[in-house]
Amino acid sequence: KNEVEQSPQNLTAQEGEFITINCSYSVGISALHWLQQHPGGGIVSLFMLSSGKKKHGRLIATINIQEKHSSLHITASHPRDSAVYICAVRSDTSGSRLTFGEGTQLTVNP
Amino acid sequence: DTEVTQTPKHLVMGMTNKKSLKCEQHMGHRAMYWYKQKAKKPPELMFVYSYEKLSINESVPSRFSPECPNSSLLNLHLHALQPEDSALYLCASSLSPVGGGDRPQHFGDGTRLSIL
């Protein structure tokens, strides 16, 4: 079992829909990151969380440390949100290393 | 626009060639990373430099040779690569390595490498 599990693996939505991507992890962590990767390859760091909730524009990230679970929400989705969303954690014992989930491929249709 | 600049964006090389990938950041970050990413897979950590010193080598074959000439530059020297080394190579940086608090990693756009 991977230390970081994401669901779903693939998600197709219509423009305007509310989207949720989930991430569960099995280790103690110091921080959880949500990353976005567009087809061109570059990765953008969306959020870094160690507790609670963060919001940036239409994106909201939450984390429940006790349940070892995080969610990324996108409100009023748009075709430009189509990308791979990756959850990554820095565990208490991993030093500089991030452990990545397999990613969620999101496609938003107009 | 990314604050971490990688060159070249694309590289095609033969198995006997020697080439280098370059990564540059001017954010004052003291930790720099090389990742390898195969299609539809998450990035895999290769190397970490902390204050210009190699701190992590994830058992990467010696045909990959990293170099950090100064705090803004990170190179990856390539020699005698194999076809399975074809991948996207991503560079990242963060404000501080472990011990200085957790900081987000800033990624470059990557170099797409093809080995013939």
Could you list some keywords that capture this structure?
heterodimer; A: 110 residues; mainly beta; five-stranded antiparallel sheet; globular; B: 116 residues; seven-stranded mixed sheet; four-stranded antiparallel sheet
* Oligomer classification: heterodimer
Mean of all residue-level pLDDT scores of chain B? 91
Supply Rg of chain A. Answer: 13 Å
Strand content of chain A: over 45%
SS-derived structural category of chain A: mainly beta
Molecular structure report:
The complex is a heterodimer of chains A (about 110) and B (about 120). Chain A is mainly β and about 110 residues long. In chain A, about 0% of the residues lie in helices and about 60% in strands. Chain A is built from no helices and 11 strands. In chain A, strands 2, 4, 5, 9, 10 and 11 form a 6-stranded mixed beta sheet that branches. Chain A has a 5-stranded antiparallel beta sheet with strand order 1-3-8-7-6, with no helix packed on it. With about 120 residues, chain B is mostly beta strands. Chain B is built from no helices and 11 strands. In chain B, the strands form 2 sheets. In chain B, strands 2, 4, 5, 6, 9, 10 and 11 form a 7-stranded mixed beta sheet that branches. In chain B, strands 1-3-8-7 form a 4-stranded antiparallel beta sheet, with no helix packed on it. In chain B, strand 7 (about 65-70) and strand 8 (about 75-80) form a beta hairpin. The mean pLDDT of chain B is about 90. The interface of A and B includes residues 41, 50 and 95 of A.
What's a quick, concise take on this entry?
The complex is a heterodimer of chains A (about 110) and B (about 120). Chain A is an all-beta fold.
Strand-helix topology:
The complex is a heterodimer of chains A (110) and B (116).
Chain A: E1 4-7, E2 10-14, E3 19-25, E4 29-37, E5 43-49, E6 52-56, E7 59-64, E8 69-74, E9 83-91, E10 99-100, E11 104-109
Parallel strand pairs in A: 2-11
Antiparallel strand pairs in A: 1-3, 3-8, 4-5, 4-9, 6-7, 7-8, 9-10, 9-11
Chain B: E1 4-7, E2 10-13, E3 18-25, E4 31-37, E5 44-50, E6 53-57, E7 64-70, E8 73-79, E9 87-94, E10 106-107, E11 111-115
